[in-house]
Amino acid sequence: MSQFRALAGVLRGGSVGGIQWLRACGGAPARRWVDPRRNCSSGAAPVLSSVAGSSSYMEEMYFAWLEDHRNVHESWDAFFRNMQASSPPGEAVERRPSALLEGRVLSHSANMAQKVVEDHLAVHTLIRAYQIRGHHVAQLDPLGILDADLDSFVPSDLITTIDKLGFYSLDESDLDRSFQLPSTTFIGGEDTTLPLREIIRRLEASYCGHIGIEFMFINNVNQCQWIRQKFETPGIMQFTKLEKRTLLARLIRSTRFEDFLARKWSSEKRFGLEGCEVLIPALKSMIDTSSAAGIDSVIMGMPHRGRLNVLANVIRKELDQIFCQFDPKLEASDEGSGDVKYHLGMYHERINRETDKNITLSLMANPSHLEAVDPVVQGKAKAEQFYRGDTQGKKVMSILIHGDAAFAGQGVVYETIHLSELPSYTTHGTIHVVVNNQIGFTTDPRVARSSPYPTDVARVVNAPIFHVNADDPEAVMYVCRVAAEWRATFNKDVVIDLVCYRRFGHNEMDEPMFTQPLMYKQIRRQEHVLKKYSDRLIAEGVVTLQEYEEEVAKYDKICEEAYASSKDEKILNIRHWLDSPWPDFFTAEGEPRSMSSVPTGLKEEVLQHIGQTASSVPLDDFKIHPGVSRILRGRADLVKNRQMDWALGEYMAFGSLLKDGIHVRLSGQDVERGTFSHRHHVLHDQEVDKRICVPMNHLWADQAPYTVCNSSLSEYGVLGFELGFAMASPNALILWEAQFGDFNNTAQCIIDQFISPGQAKWVRNNGIVLLLPHGMEGMGPEHSSARPERFLQMSKDDPDHFPEFSGDFEVQQLYDCNWIVVNCSTPANYCHVLRRQILLPFRKPLIIFTPKSLLRQPDARSSFEDLAEGTQFKRVIPDVGPASQNPAKVKRVIFCTGKVYYELARERKQQKLEKDIAIIRLEQISPFPFDLVRTEAEKYGNAELVWCQEEHKNMGYYDYVRPRFLTVAANRRPIWYVGRDPAAAPATGNKFTHFNELKRFMDTAFNLNAFHGKDL
Ligand SMILES: Cc1ncc(C[n+]2csc(CCOP(=O)(O)OP(=O)(O)O)c2C)c(N)n1
Ligand SMILES: [Mg+2]
Prior knowledge:
35 helices; elongated; alpha/beta; binds magnesium ion; 7-stranded mixed beta sheet; about 40% helix
């Protein structure tokens, strides 16, 4: 852009002309004749459509033209003028056109006609060039020194100097020729032809001013036309006096808020908005437009920059509540660790002053991890839409605010944007706003991204991108209005790139001159946008200086008063910063309504009914695959025998919750069928394309809906989305299943930053369930381990302290923990734990390591008895065999979890050690069932305690359970390790090694002398 400026300077400056030369002949053409877009069939059709017509027709036109040039279509006018200009002096006017069409003149005219066609084509191409590439030379950088597209090139097909007309075989003499406008432009307004000079001037105004638009990659012509019309129509960017005054008032608030914080807390980090103050009126403007279009709930996500300002001036969080966050002496009232002020969320219902309608605004709490909140916001928005029946996104919408470096650099942006059009994930259009201050901490964009703009990622979903110079508040407001209208019209994503600057360092303590000296010299000289805009409005007579000063003083006073009252606050209430309150679920004080354990068993008829539906096809004339038929027959047999496998256990959990009005949503890669082909929740008609049946939705007439959806191939994005979905309501079971548990690590940030510490940081409950297929089955390093060690390491129960609760141990312990980690070994227990998740009076994330080979293993079935009324989730499954009959004689107790239990039980049987060795399963690993483990350990008072796992020693559960076993035994009994040796990779890729390892640790597990004489 800077180079363009230099060129334009020459072109436009004084005598050479530039914009002036373009304007020299400006003004609307004389008279409209026939609009070729509406009527091309009259005798006055444009020359292009009749140039091959008869000579008498041409004569008719010619005589009409001679009489008065305005009698004919502008294109005929241009044609005859050209013809006249290139004929020998005096000839054309005197001779009839039919004569002109003879001999030399005939061929000359034919050439002329061809030239007219070519010139029109050239002009059409030129118009298109501006539509495609005009943004490259738009004046986007308020500092005037940088290229928003990282390149100072000027496209050769934009007319930035007169000589560039040559690109189209045109020259200066063509500037005053009129050209017919194509139907793909609106620059003419009411006029259908314009002189070339005016065409270029209007294209410059539309595409190369303070707004640069990228949209020509959009595949849909109507959408392109819509955008052209919004930006090309002459005079469309008009603001009333009132609108200008509102904009100024909002800019005052935005600017003075930061000034106030800077004055009061000059050495505090706040990540101020200075340099992009226009963000506040921008957001407000898009919210106003959306509210007018019917939106009444806006869910927002944003990073650090300007967040306090958004909370204060967009969400309207009480100022004193914000100010007291700066007081280091205030203690927090809530449990948990809390978070820094520029991460907290907020939920606020208010009246939109512009539309007088109710609107709820929520800003989601987020971690430092840039962009991580994007999918969470989308999930929350989707859930609100879903529960409100807002199938088109006409009531609820999301707005995401980004930094330029983060938007370009973070992959989760792409993952989130790719959810935007998927039926089970779309939020029907998100407005993305990039605060493009042209820097990321200390890094220049040139080394931070390979794409021209930070926003290019949005092109993949055909989202239009509006770049705008943030120092032109009216241009910004216009773009925001159009973006909101776009979203309301097409329900698709749209991006606003607010090209701005960062007045200070990365934070208020940072020195930007170390790394960006020249940029910051310019920034120091840069007049504040508020000053520029207020001067302009005062000059225009929209406000007086006095009115302006009064408005400033009024807001300063509001801040001072709030500051004074913030001093009265004695305690910090993080609870007041909750972004997703569940008022009916908790008591008024935010406490659970009860604290006792809940029976999770089911009536026989419910089990039977669900079992039958799970083994049938509820639709008529629906032809399923023979393999699926076989599976359903197998299920029917199980049900007849009152038995269930894993898939049926899951069916029982989901189906029974649906019966009670609990929405169940299962999302993840290939979850509909199930990676291991065991689930089959969506049946496909083998003869009718796309005809499907979800039997789970045919259980009961008044059941809650069941959503099962194959996701895009993303973990970070989709898990974040489901976490957000689970925030909207406590009365829903939201599950995300990893294809294999191993892949959860590409969603690590959602796990580490949101799921594990979410409640501690932001006092909000979340009951999301993670299903992570796990187990060492010789499938190599990447299809074996869901990395239990990581989840356990983040569990907060104290390893060295035996918890003593006065009430229900199980529930109290769950209430205290940050999440629940289980590895169920039976379908019944899996069903119980899913039901417990919803029947608990609070919500905690639940991590379930799920089986693979056990899905089909006959040993691993449950009886309906295990799910009968009165039964419940077993945190520990004790040994019930011969060992338990005579516990004093038992020599060894092997504690384990998950699938290895079946391998141990088989081996024990083979070695006939059932009286000597007890095997006890930990089904809930965290929080650690101290009470039940103690009971079991005490029961077998003379036995060695062994922990056996199939994972490597530095992985799995050992590091977590070991200190807890020692606490249970008061350090008087050791806990011996049996399992694989330490390793770097989670599993071997070699089958032989795999079985060898298994054999070795099985041998140790059943060698009763293995630990004799050994020290721990
Ligand atoms: C995922 C992640 N990586 C690194 C950081 C450290 N960090 C904090 S702000 C920042 C620069 C962000 O630049 P940009 O997105 O342009 O936002 P700006 O601060 O300029 O508003 C970085 C690298 C982070 N917070 N998150
Ligand atoms: Mg930046």
